[in-house]
Amino acid sequence: MEAAAGEGKGGGGGFCASEHQHTRYNPLRDDWVLVSAHRVKRPWQGQLEKLSTEDVPRWDPSNPLCPGATRANGEVNPQYEGTFVFPNDFPALQPDAPEPGDSDHPLFKAAAARGVCKVMCFHPWSDLTLPLMSLAEIRAVIDTWLELTTELGTSYPWVQIFENKGAMMGCSNPHPHCQVWASSFLPNEACLEDRTQRQYLSQHGIPMLLDYAEQEARRKDRLVVENTDWLVVVPYWATWPYQTLLLPRRHVCRLQDLCEGERDSLASIMQKLLIKYDNLFEVSFPYSMGWHGAPTGTYLEQDCRHWQLHAHYYPPLLRSATVRKFMVGYEMLAQAQRDLTPEQAAERLRSLPEVHYK
């Protein structure tokens, strides 16, 4: 495997990426991250997270996501046996919100925000998570994602699929589920990635993340898992300790552009990645993840070749199941900082078995 940038080279006074602090550029966000690998050696005297010792019941009539349960609005869930989608009972976006008035000063701008929010249950059992589901069950989740992005994408320019897994990531319900928010506007992250990917294609003649996937497939040092259609890497510019980026090998703009074989292989690589995550500290690994692809709505008729479909995984755990990374202080006021290098994180994940510890 190739060395990380600068590692093992004589320039810069014997610089070694795993020993010496340096900054790395994130072309997708057009910003930088400070890498301070030597800090991982310091003793930890900070907060320790509490591990859940309670067994999650397979079915709980008081859990509003379970089949047959009554939700807060009085509606009763069907006795579903696969995936189940319903409108969020407390949506952040609604389709009929009025527009704000004109601003009287450039420092006080407001704009219309409309949309819909849906909840999608992955499985009828509350004691399952994606890495413990079968490939067929994960494929059903993927198919439902595609259906939702296609349906909502006809009306809205941005459809954000995201999963918050674990109480550490703010998930208030252990039932396996994600959320899908469709908005009348492009959110900040979408606008940023649209700009950087458009610029990269203009300057280099190839979509940024297609080029990146080809580079990482060749270099190998940040590769976690791969198959014929997909690869997962700890990005060169990763911020979170075990952050990963899931990428298709061919040029794909949107989820709904995936062929049947790519959907099957996506289920396989997701299962392998998430099993490795759980095996890292032998715990149900918390994370926030989400899909980014070319905008929809009116953008369906526009040239979006600069976009490449991808999924971000942002897990907070750092040293163990009870020690997490905090984005505070310097990270909030200056720029992102990480301790262990992306290469170290990838090597550790790569070495883990693909059979779940349970």
From TrEMBL:
Entry GO MF terms: UDP-glucose:hexose-1-phosphate uridylyltransferase activity; zinc ion binding
A cellular-component GO term for this protein: cytoplasm
GO biological process: galactose catabolic process via UDP-galactose, Leloir pathway
The protein's Enzyme Commission number: 2.7.7.12
Active site, per annotation: H177
Positions with a binding annotation for UDP-alpha-D-glucose: 39-42, 72, 88-89, 164, 170-172, 179, 325-326, 330-331, 337
Superkingdom of this protein's organism: Eukaryota
Classification via SUPFAM superfamilies: HIT-like (SSF54197)
Galactose-1-phosphate uridyl transferase C-terminal domain sequence ranges: 193-358
Cofactor binding annotation: Binds 1 Fe cation per subunit.
Pathway membership, UniProt: Carbohydrate metabolism; galactose metabolism
PROSITE patterns recorded: GAL_P_UDP_TRANSF_I
InterPro entries the UniProt entry points to: GalP_UDPtransf1 (IPR001937), GalP_UDPtransf1_His-AS (IPR019779), GalP_Utransf_C (IPR005850), GalP_Utransf_N (IPR005849), HIT-like_sf (IPR036265)
Keywords of the record: Carbohydrate metabolism, Galactose metabolism, Iron, Metal-binding, Nucleotidyltransferase, Transferase, Zinc
Record's catalysed reaction(s): alpha-D-galactose 1-phosphate + UDP-alpha-D-glucose = alpha-D-glucose 1-phosphate + UDP-alpha-D-galactose
CDD domains: GalT
Residue positions binding Fe cation: E193, H292, H310, H312
Cofactor(s), by name: Fe cation; Zn(2+)
Occurrences of domain Galactose-1-phosphate uridyl transferase N-terminal (ranges): 19-187
Iron keyword on record: yes
Similarity comment: family membership: Belongs to the galactose-1-phosphate uridylyltransferase type 1 family.
Role played: Plays an important role in galactose metabolism.
PANTHER family: GALACTOSE-1-PHOSPHATE URIDYLYLTRANSFERASE
Protein name according to UniProt: Galactose-1-phosphate uridylyltransferase
Species of the source: Rhinopomastus cyanomelas (Common scimitarbill)
High-level lineage: Eukaryota, Metazoa, Chordata, Craniata, Vertebrata
Gene: Galt
